[in-house]
Amino acid sequence: MAFLVKVPLNTSCANCRQLDNLFNPSLKLKIERSVSIGFRYRIRNRRRSLIAMAGKQVQSLELGTDVSPKNVELPIMVNGCTGRVGRAVLEAAISAGLHPVPVALGGPDDSGKIVDVDGKQIEIHGPSQRESVLSYAFNEYPNLIVVDYTVPASVNENAELYCKIGVPFVMGTTGGDRELLYKTVTDSKVYAVISPQMGKQVVAFLAAMEIMAEQFPGAFSGYNLQAMESHQVSKLDLSGTAKAVISCFQKLGVSFELEQVQQIRDPKSQVEMMGVPEEHLSGHAFHTYHLTSPDGTVSFEFQHNVCGRSIYAEGTVDAILFLAKKVNSNADKRIYDMIDVLREGNMR
């Protein structure tokens, strides 16, 4: 009798058994007999794996019930789920009937942590294991969708990994080199939703701004702009939404640079200047854009305030469902944003 064990490249047999136990928690291990092991490369569905063949002492697996992960309808991996947004996405995804796989990627400080959401436990793996863990997960769950809510410094490196493995992904993390990000995905032909803003209603506002900028260029020429954005102190970079809105104002004729945006991160100022409720200091997004005519007689103000993270989590779930549909239909277009998701018109 020959027993086959799939092992991703750069992953030991011991690690493989550990991952098998994670993906198939109901498996009962039983030593049955000695078999010999030989290794050879096999290419299957663009993913390389090693095949362990018969002949050396190993543990074989006895399946009590059918727990094949291939039966999971839509599995997801939420990288960065130790953070508040990532956890909110997990909660929303589970409520929507999606199935988080039992592993995810995180930073060095997160390695070994267990995230428990609604009774589902997810083990976090650090940077040194990320390629082998993702390869194994994608091999076990061929229809896997990855969601990224990590940190700005990891955006490009993570995208390169997803493209290398060939797994479709939703990039909700802001920052990084966005031009390089798009080039990486374009060259790889991997399906992806990339958006600096996942809140559907805020995206609709952004879409309206883009339409105005395209149809009425220069309409606000000569106007002065004051822009303020307030987020929780843990947000390290300038809001991607602010960047998108300011780009529209620039097309409308406003002279303004991103360096002029007031980034409010001091809790006292957030409460007093921006009106952030104290209970939402740890999670909010308040934006104000104030336009004044050259002579000071006319003013316009655009404002959108978000407390909590549910708006982003729900939008992300819609992006996951949208992307899965595009992958399944083998759509010609590969890179999408949240405006594409809105235009599809089948959000929950």
Automatic annotation (TrEMBL):
InterPro entries: DapB_C, DapB_N, DHDPR_bac, Dihydrodipicolinate_Rdtase_pln, NAD(P)-bd_dom_sf. The keyword rRNA processing does not apply. The keyword NAD applies. It comes from the Eukaryota. Its main location: plastid. GO terms for molecular function: 4-hydroxy-tetrahydrodipicolinate reductase; NADPH binding. Keywords: Amino-acid biosynthesis, Chloroplast, Diaminopimelate biosynthesis, Lysine biosynthesis, NAD, NADP, Oxidoreductase, Plastid, Transit peptide. It catalyses: (S)-2,3,4,5-tetrahydrodipicolinate + NADP(+) + H2O = (2S,4S)-4-hydroxy-2,3,4,5-tetrahydrodipicolinate + NADPH + H(+); (S)-2,3,4,5-tetrahydrodipicolinate + NAD(+) + H2O = (2S,4S)-4-hydroxy-2,3,4,5-tetrahydrodipicolinate + NADH + H(+). It is found in: Plastid, Chloroplast. Pathway: Amino-acid biosynthesis; L-lysine biosynthesis via DAP pathway; (S)-tetrahydrodipicolinate from L-aspartate: step 4/4. Residues 75-198 form the Dihydrodipicolinate reductase N-terminal domain. GO terms for biological process: diaminopimelate biosynthetic process; lysine biosynthetic process via diaminopimelate. Its EC number is 1.17.1.8. Residues 202-342 form the Dihydrodipicolinate reductase C-terminal domain. Pfam families: DapB_C, DapB_N. GO terms for cellular component: chloroplast stroma. It is an enzyme of class 1 (oxidoreductase). Catalyzes the conversion of 4-hydroxy-tetrahydrodipicolinate (HTPA) to tetrahydrodipicolinate. Belongs to the DapB family. PANTHER family: 4-HYDROXY-TETRAHYDRODIPICOLINATE REDUCTASE 1, CHLOROPLASTIC-RELATED (PTHR20836:SF0), DIHYDRODIPICOLINATE REDUCTASE (PTHR20836). This is 4-hydroxy-tetrahydrodipicolinate reductase.
